[in-house]
Amino acid sequence: MHAPISTLTTQTEATTDMFQAATINSTNKVDFYAELCQQLKGLLHGESDTIANAANTSALMFEMMPDLNWAGFYFLKSDSELVLGPFQGKAACVRIAVGRGVCGTAVEKGASILVEDVHAFPGHIACDAASRSELVVPLHHDGKVLGVIDLDSPTASRFDAEDQAGVEALARIFVEASY
Ligand code: SME
């Protein structure tokens, strides 16, 4: 087990605690996500700012999850449109209509979508030509969908049901801390 993770403090404070993502040595995904969830809880502990938490959640996922080329958030700014939030990776499309692309479809369905081959997903929106597979997980709060976490990989079939369950757990931690 890793030592408890202290939270980041502002640069202006006299004592600045650095958050250091700890290497995860787990060989199976269930254990990997259990540990990543603990790290995310530590990273977000005591902070409720949505943008800051989305930024740090993106950074942790991008650093810790192997074989990603994009990790980030889209938030619903109206009933009909998602808008790009904090992310790691190449610059991405800003607005996605509900019902469009993988992200908009996940919002419409209110359920996660695993895409093994993005070229086979009708209406997939390509933000990075390198992306081959994708996992989109909605953010649920009080019976509403607030947005999505979107993960892209340059490897086909990078994500499976265990990744989906793991990222759904990360999404719950993010929502609990931020709303
Ligand atoms: N591929 C997504 C668009 C967002 S980018 O992957 C960052 C989609 O089809 O909704």
Description:
This protein is of the alpha+beta class and 179 residues long. Helix content is 32%, strand content 24%. It has a single domain (29-178), classed as 2-Layer Sandwich (Beta-Lactamase). The protein has helices at residues 29-44, 50-64, 101-109, 161-178, and strands spanning 70-78, 81-89, 95-97, 113-115, 133-141, 144-153. A six-stranded antiparallel beta sheet has the order 3-2-1-6-5-4, with helices on both faces. The two termini are 29 Å apart. 34% of the residues are buried. Mean pLDDT is 91; it is low at 1-15. The protein binds methionine sulfoxide. Methionine sulfoxide (SME) is lined by residues 70, 92-93, 96, 101-103, 124-125, 127, 131, 134, 150, 152.
